[in-house]
Amino acid sequence: MIERPFVGARNRVLQVLALYAPGAATLRPALHRLRGVHIGPDVFIGTDAIIETAQPHLVSIGKGAVIGIRTVIIAHFRSEGAEAAAEADPRGRPTVRIEDDVFIGPGVIILPNVTIGRGAVVNAGSVVTRSVPALTMVQGNPAQPVARFGVPLGMHTPLKEFYRTLKPIKPNKPSHDA
Amino acid sequence: MSDVSAAEVRSFLLHHIHDQVLASGLSPQELSDDFDLLATGTIDSMGLIELLSALEDRFGVTADLGELDTEDIGLIGPFCEHIAHRARS
Predict the structure, then answer these.
(1) Which residues of B touch A159 (CB under 8 A)?
(2) Long-range CB contacts (< 8 A, 24+ apart) of A108-115?
(3) Which residues from B are below 8 Å from A when comparing CB atoms?
(4) CB A159 to CB B38 under 8 A?
(5) Pairwise CA distance, residues A123 & A144, whole Å
(6) What is this model's ipTM?
(7) Which pTM does this prediction carry?
(8) Is A32 part of the annotated catalytic residue set?
């Protein structure tokens, strides 16, 4: 898909403004909405977060989600399939879906074609390459499930209420039977 | 069901978080039962998950922190009592 120069320049200027503008829950989400990112109400976006530079309309962020400082969201890679899909559907559908009440920690990288389920938590520094189930905590590169819980870790949830519901997920141990 | 005491759980817990406690400028031996591991930042959510997993491996107990009062979650005394109680039941 060929990016129109004016739209591309406008999106980039708005992205740069949104990096350091004050108002994590007000001005920054508003700037990203102007760029075309689908953003619900009560979303918090930390400083220096990059949300899909060229095709912001491919990202959706549900209500109450928290996007940590220096998060990078990439919603498309250039490929034959992606080019053909963009030509067929120039407005596109989101390829990165961050559902309601998701908590993205600092320094997370989110790659295309993932859905992060309602209330999920992505720990700091993780790289999300696959979809994350709702109410699940993931960590690492690639991000793997480490715990499940019963209440979302929102901006207004007391931490101990969240901790009360934590249940570790045991990693699958490699089999040595073969 | 196994005969696990809160003192055994406490000993294991303090060994498990030994490095974090020292990094906080404290000594594991001087932590009282009402020392709050979470409120003091001694362990965070990942630390709690690792601790719960280690306790499960050691004592065969799946903790249910929902059985504790909210304010007691990170307190060493109630936490160890809870694990010991789960091991006995």
Answers:
(1) 38
(2) A108/A68, A108/A71, A108/A72, A109/A71, A109/A72, A109/A74, A110/A71, A110/A72, A110/A73, A110/A74, A111/A74, A112/A58, A112/A74, A112/A75, A112/A76, A112/A77
(3) 38, 45-46, 48-50, 52-53, 56, 62, 65-66, 68, 70-71, 73-74
(4) yes
(5) 10
(6) 0.83
(7) 0.87
(8) no
